[in-house]
Amino acid sequence: MALYSRQQHPELDLEYFFCDTHKELPETYDYLDRIEARLGIKIHRLSANRGFDHWLEVHGGLLPSPQMRWCTIMMKIKPLEAFIGDDEAISYIGIRADENRSGYISTKPNIKPVFPFKEQGLVKADIIRLLEESGIGLPDYYRWRSRSGCFFCFFQRKYEWVMLAEEHPDLFQQAVNYEQNHKDGRTYTWTQGETLLELLARKEEIITNHHKAIAREQKNTPNRPLAEALEAILDEENDDLPCLACHL
């Protein structure tokens, strides 16, 4: 959206922001630096006054989940609305025409949402082409992940958890620690029905099934970019919507 807005409306005085939970993937920070360098812009890094660990304690150790998205409220929405304040603002939202979601829409009357991709009928293939032609390209995590968000995002699919353990074993261990370390002995899990260590014990099975699904998808749609094939396969495993305010 930053690239598209600069190309289509260079006359606009735009501000760019990223709500930083301080629990992001290293690839996400690298990508933000790449965007700033390529476009010659400054991205405001908005942070909650207190970090994830503080809000986890406030919520009694209850890990965020699709049913309890306190991380989105406290670390994404509130910092953004505090940044805007009471100024009149137009929020350009990068939801594509082929996505069945609306994204974050503020209830504050001074913030007006606009959806340029939807209005112009731009789909994922258009966005990938736009990024590739600009030289910015895709974030490196798209090799194994279909979304941004915290490294322990509860919307990750099982394959993505396995690959987190492969790509960033230190971050995977931190996610395991969040499951295990509770003062009152309660147990919380990031994925429904099993702990991360139980999931990791099925690593070979999960990877094998994923590779079979990718091969089937590429056979059925041979001209489809790998990033799109990966997203389609992961959506088959879990069709929950991603955290709408977090998706980069």
TrEMBL record:
**Ranges for the Phosphoadenosine phosphosulphate reductase domain?**
3-102
Which Pfam family, any one of them, does this sequence belong to?
A: PAPS_reduct
Gene3D superfamilies referenced in this protein's UniProt entry, alphabetically: HUPs
Q: Which residues form a coiled coil?
A: none
InterPro entries associated with the record: PAPS_reduct_dom (IPR002500), Rossmann-like_a/b/a_fold (IPR014729), Sulfate_adenylyltrnsfr_sub2 (IPR050128)
Q: Which PANTHER family match?
A: PHOSPHOADENOSINE PHOSPHOSULFATE REDUCTASE, SULFATE ADENYLYLTRANSFERASE SUBUNIT 2
Please state what the protein is called.
Answer: Phosphoadenosine phosphosulfate reductase family protein
Record the organism.
Spirulina subsalsa FACHB-351
